[in-house]
Amino acid sequence: MKKYLNYFIFRYALTYFLLSLICIITAIIPEFFLFFIGIELLIYTYVLHKKNRLKETDFFMQCFIILFLAMALTISLILSNGYLSSPYWNIYYAAGFPFLLFFGLASLSRNYAIVFIAPLIITVGHLMMIYAFTKPKISVKNLVIKGLCFVLLCSTSFYIYHNSPSRKYKGGHDFEYMGGYSTTDLSPFYVYNPNHQLVELSVPSTFTIEKETDMPTLDGAEACYPVYSAIAKAVYKDIDKIEEDYTLTEDYLDNNTNGKIVTFTNTSVGYSRLIQGEVDMFFGAKPSQSQLEEAKEAGVEFEYTPIGQEAFIFFVNTNNPVSNLSSNQIRSIYHGDITHWNEVGGNNQEILAFQRPERSGSQAMMTYFMGDVSLKEPLQYEYVSGMTGIISQTAEYNGEDDAIGYTFKYFLEGLHQEQNVKILSIDGVEPTAENIKSKTYPLSTYLYCVTLKSNEKENVQKLKDYLLSPQGQYIIEQTGYCSLSNS
Question: Where does the record place the PBP domain (predicted)?
C-alpha cells in the first residue's frame, strides 16, 4: 500500500504536474502539449531506467493510475448526463489534478476533446514506455482483465457522451440566416427582391405613406416577416428602393437589423427594440414574462392590436401512432407527470418533450397555456461560443420518433420548419382554418401588432387601422394566417 501511495504522490501527482508546466508555452495550440510531454516522459523514463529506479511494479502501479482516471471520467459522465458544464466534472478534474494547469489553458482554446482525453493518452503512453524499459512479467489473465476494464470504462464514457442530450439534440441558437437571428431563409420576402413571394394587391392600396420619414419602423417574429413585409410593400411608397439602397451602406452591416424600415431581429431582440423605441411596431405573439418585466423597468406599456388569427399547435413524428392529446395530458407531459408514450396510447418509449427559448413567442404562449402548472426543466444542448467556453441552450425538436414539439401553425406549415411531422388534434379538435376562426380549436390565438401606448405617431395608428381594413385582412389571410372575419 505504501508503494502505491508513494507512486501516486511522486510519480503521478508531482511528476505530471511538473511536466505539464510545458503547457504554458503551448496554450494556443494544446495539441502540441501531447507531443512535448511525450518527449519529456520518454526522457524521464529513460533516466529512471538508467539509474535503476524503474521497477516492474511501476507497470502495475501505472495500470492502477490509468484505471483510476478512466473510472473518474466514467463517473463524471454518468452523473453529469454528458453535460460538460455540469459541476460533476469536478470529480474528473480532482482525479486529474496534476493536469489542472493544462485543463485551464486548453479550455480557453475551446478544445474540450483534448482536455478530457489528454490525461488518458499521456498515462497510457507512459505505461507503454515503462513496459518497454522494464519488460515486466505479467500473466495473460491479469493483462486481459485490466485491458477489458479499461476498454469497458472508455466505451461507456464514449457512449454516454455521444448519446447525451448535450450532443444528441441540435441547438436552437445556431441560426443560419438574417445575421444569425433566423432559422429560416427569409430572402423570398424581402421587399426589394425582384422575385419575392409577398402577397400583392390587385388594386392600389387605400392607404399610402409617401415620405420615408413618416414610415413607421417594423420588426417582428420570423413567421410574421412575410406579413409585415407585404404590408410595407403595399403601403410604403418606393420601399423596395429604400431598403435596397440601405443594403449598400455601412449602417446596414453595423446595425445588423436586416433593414432600415422593414427590419427583422426576431421576437427576443425585437421586443427589446420596441421597448427602447428603436421600432414603432412589433408583429408576433404576446411577450414573455421577462419581456413584460423589461418593459416595466423601462417605464413603458404595450398596446396589443389583434390583426389575425392563428393556432398554437403541438406536433410529433409521422411514425408516432398518437394523433390526439387532451390539454391536461399535454400539461402533464410538460410538467413531467407523464413520461412515456404508452401512458397516452402510444408506444413504450420515453417522451422527449422539447421546449423553445424563454423569450421566444411560442415559449411565451406555452407558458400561458400551462397556466399554474409549471414547466419541467427543458432539454438542453451545449455548444462552444467564442472565448466564453461551454454554453447551454434550450434544445430544439429534432425529428425523433419519440419527440414532441410546439410552435405556431404558420411557422410550421407556411415556412416549412419541420419535415416528417404531423400536427396533433387537441381535445379531439384539429387546427383547421374553420376551427381556428370559430375558436373551436382550444389553442386558437391571435397574431398581434404590438406598439407602445406612449407612441403617438399619426401613421402608427393609421397603419394599425389599415391592418384591420379589408385590404390588410386580405394580405394577412393570403399570407397564410386566418383573418379576423368569421366568414
Answer: 249-470
Burial 73-93 (b: 16+ CB within 10 A, else e): bbbbbeebebbbebeebebbe
What pLDDT, in 10s, does the model give residues 223-249? Answer: 899 999 999 999 999 999 999 999 988
- pLDDT at residue 397 tops 90: no
Q: Counting beta carbons within 10 angstroms of the beta carbon of residue 459, is it exposed (0 to 12), middle (13 to 18) or buried (19 or more)?
A: middle
Tell me what pLDDT residue 26 has: 57
Fold type of domain 310-445: D-Maltodextrin-Binding Protein; domain 2 (3.40.190)
Q: Poorest-confidence range of 61-65, 194-198, 296-300, 358-362?
A: 358-362
Which among 50, 8, 38 has a CA at the least distance from the CA of 128? Answer: 38
3-state secondary structure of 393: strand
Q: Which three cell numbers stand for residue 31?
A: 495539441
Q: Where are the domains of the chain?
A: 2-168, 184-309+448-479, 310-445
Write the CB contacts of 415 (distance below 8 Å, at least 6 apart in sequence): 184, 222, 223
Are both 184-309+448-479 and 310-445 of the same fold? yes
> Around 29, how many Cα atoms within 13 Å sit in the side-chain half-sphere?
4
**Three-state SS at 421:** strand
Residue type present at position 359: R
Distance separating alpha carbons of residues 159 and 166, to the nearest angstrom: 13
- Any idea of the CA torsion for 40, 45, 48, 52, to the nearest 10 degrees? -160
Q: What is the amino acid identity at position 154?
A: C
DSSP 12: I
Any alpha helices (H) in 86-178, and if so which ranges? 90-95, 100-108, 112-134, 140-162, 165-168
In the chain, how long is the greatest CA-to-CA distance?
A: 98
Q: Which helix (H) or strand (E) holds 382?
A: strand 380-384
Q: What angle, rounded to 10 degrees, do the helices at 470-479 and 225-235 form?
A: 140
The size of the chain, in residues, is: 487
CA nearest to 273, candidates 282, 286, 283 = 282
- Residue 269: what pLDDT? 87
Domain 184-309+448-479 has CATH 2.60.120.1440: no
> In whole angstroms, how far apart are CA 303 and each of 88, 273, 275, 292, 300?
46, 15, 12, 12, 10
Residue for grid cell 376562426 = 437
Residue type, 400: E
| Mean predicted confidence (pLDDT) in 460-468 | 97
Q: Where are the alpha helices (DSSP H) in 7-139?
A: 15-20, 31-50, 56-80, 90-95, 100-108, 112-134
3-class DSSP state for residue 406?
strand
pLDDT per residue over 96-144, tens digit each? Answer: 999 887 777 666 655 666 677 888 989 999 999 999 999 888 888 888 9
Distance CA(278)–CA(299), nearest Å, equals 15
